[in-house]
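Section handout 9: paired folding examples.
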Amino acid sequence: MRVGASVELSVGKLIVGDGRVLEDVEVGVLGGAIREVTKSGLEESYADALDLSDMYVMPGLFDAHVHVRYGVKPDPEERSNEYQAVRGAENARKALMSGVTSLADAGGIRNVAFAVRNAINDGVALGPRMFVSGEMITMTGGRSKKPGFRLEVNGADSARKVARGLLMYHGANFIKLGATGAISSPHTGPRHPQLTVEEMRACSEEAHKCGKKVHAHCYGEEGISNAIEAGADVIVHGQTLTDDHIATMKERGMILMPTLKTFCGHLEHLDEGGVHARIITTGIWEETEPNFRKAHGRGVTISMGTDAGMPDNLFGDNPRDLEYMVEWGMTTEQAVQAGTLNAAKSVGVEDRLGTVEEGKYADLIFLREDPLEEISAIRTSLERVMLNGALIDPKSTPFL
């Protein structure tokens, strides 16, 4: 990944990402990191200067739940790993050009997402910082149509071995667990529990030993209860949260990642049937908005995660997730934090990302309009992206 030059930014309005807003500040960037943030004059000298006095500057967005390997529509037949990796690199680039400077791929297949991550980190491809779980750990047949197609486990020892392999051999940045079925599960309903508490606890123990977070795909009360008991850090989707779930999540500092963009997007394609229609027939949709409002209203920490890569859930449209959050009751300030600091927390990298503070990576976006006035400004008024201190003009690298 390219490291940017030495530059000082004169910023009209700085949205820090943790609820603070600073006006007329200077930001010093050196070696890909934020060196200074001050209102009283920079202490160091920088080679270049950029006047952003009429702009709004905030941390780059962090989409903490995507699947880079997929196309816009399901493939009629399985594509090769190599093809999916190339497509994944292009998907990641599209996300970057929309202001997403960090992505978390939460459940890929084989080594595809790791290859995309490594290519971006090595400067072979242009894309955001990537954090990768590798394959979702699932029970036998839980997410597979044929034997050996997904990362399947049976029992706690089997689960522990698989988690160790992801963490040690592939450098997984976090672990993803299949606590329940899914809307697209071939053999079970979305609310049916799958991995056992013991299996998930073994994975959680291995991840936590390495300082890594655990994300649990959950619909339905029993699956959520199992994931919480097993020590998961993040509940993904999370329909059917109970009062007890919410109380425990708040007590433990757990995060809800509601993936609103994928659910709301399904409604626009109901006439196509398939997974789009199953959001209605499974009863998932009717729970989505009240569940989100309940969790948010009671103070559960919520993170951005679009599920981009699911059918018709496009890379490059990632910021729309925050707009749904505002439509359903968040303030714009809360939505910004969901898409920056909270998302960084969900992957355990808030010490490096998520806010504009000294010592963190210089991953920023520059906007012509104020997202705290209208959250869609992130999507509609993006002027420049700064990744690792390097400036990128989204208009000069158009989408394919």
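Moving on to protein 2 of 2.
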Amino acid sequence: MAGTRKLGRTSDHRTAMLRAMVTFLLENGKIETTVTRAKEVRAMTEKYITLAKTDSLTSRRQAMAFITKDEVVKKLYTEIAPKYSDVAGGYTRITKTGPRRGDAAEMAIIELV
């Protein structure tokens, strides 16, 4: 079965969580989360970086519809996307950091390369 992971949440909750995490990743450059969440965040982040490579009104509106902060959209189009203009994907790196204390969930750091 292909598609997105459910991550134990309703579709609205999952979308809100991914929007927040993608926004935070683009704003700060790296975040620490569980491995499965990191993989979902990677897919969404790479989609929006690829979208930002073509700077048009349509693509900016699509990005603003998903990313929660206007400053982050501006940063995406002025700083992040031009940096990857000659790269065809693979904008993020996931590094496993070991189990989380408490529930032993596998943790990872996802960062922009």
